[in-house]
Write a structure and sequence with these properties.
Alpha-Beta Plaits, 5 helices, alpha+beta, 113 residues
């Protein structure tokens, strides 16, 4: 199993943040199916203020930089979801031009010891 993390910001507006969380409490089944179909076994998103942290567990062969966005190709509803969620989000300042969610480097794992 491979793990990876990414970050993005939300529009810094309490109403928008609440709406974003509401959507995620009622995520569309097609989104979950599409994520699983590309090899993501588990996804968790955490929030602090308007900052999001996403942690994923995926199949070993999964490459987040090239495979992640393929989920939008698996189902039109997944693509619709992605477009909708993008309207709530803003890139972090250190994001590369071609990236939306920005990868986060792993610097510590208690299982290393």
């Amino acid at each position: 199993m491979k793990t990876f993390a990414q970050t993005i910001d939300l529009v810094n507006d309490p109403k928008i943040i609440e709406k974003y969380e509401e959507y995620h409490r009622n995520v569309w089944p097609e989104v979950i199916e599409s994520l699983k179909s590309i090899g993501i076994n588990r996804m968790e998103i955490f929030r602090s203020a308007n900052h999001l942290f996403m942690y994923c567990e995926a199949k070993d062969e999964f490459n987040p930089e090239t495979d992640f966005q393929k989920y939008t190709e698996t189902n039109p509803k997944a693509d619709e979801w992605n477009t909708l969620m993008s309207s709530f989000q803003r890139k972090v300042p250190e994001a590369k031009p071609e990236m939306w969610w920005t990868p986060i480097k792993l610097v510590f794992d208690s299982q290393w010891f």
